[in-house]
Amino acid sequence: MKKTAMKLVALGMVIGIFGTTGAVLATSALTSIQVSLDPMRLHVNGEPLQGHGIDDKSGEFFNGKKHVPTTMIYEGTTYVPVRLAAESFGYQVDWDRNHRVINFQNEKQPPKGIVAGSLESSISHETNEDGSIDFTFVVKNQTEREMTLAFNSGQRFDYVIRNSKGEVVKSYAADKLFIQALGEKVLKQGEEWVMTDKVDTLPKGEYTIEFWITSNEDQAKHKYTFTVK
């Protein structure tokens, strides 16, 4: 196995392979180490990685100034250029020379603080023999983190029912009083929260019910259309 002594950056050993500007390195940040430069092919989702500065013939990476090894192995760990790895997965890479910060940006990623998934809700109903309707509201935590929903009163949900003309024929909270006390509901990842309510007989026709939870965040609104025959 061929071993080559190279002067590399201690931070990931790859910052210097950035582009035409490169990185200005202090002498104290350089050290001489032995690495393996045996060629290695890179695949993304099972497909050979092409472009991104990789030379089709040599397989080396063009850093804006010259061709350098695409990979290197040091102490059992494989290293690749930061820009090559990041751009392969759709990230833009910026080098802040003054603060020595590498910034990865992907416009498809959610903003900081937002977790993949959402708080989702669904509605179903069942008509009873006396004509009343039982509604079931399900709120599910589809995010990748535990969620704590905060409430300003004893009310946990609300809904309105409109007829085909858009007129409100039923409002859940209109005739109710709720205790004025702070509260919360904790939903673990993938956990469902089931709520129910019964509505008296409605005239025949098409209706739309809109449901939402009354927390201070993540309202989880949902509309559902049903028919009374």
From TrEMBL:
Residues 10-102 form the Copper amine oxidase-like N-terminal domain. SUPFAM superfamilies: Copper amine oxidase, domain N. Residues 127-216 form the Intracellular proteinase inhibitor BsuPI domain. Pfam families: BsuPI, Cu_amine_oxidN1. This is Copper amine oxidase-like N-terminal domain-containing protein.
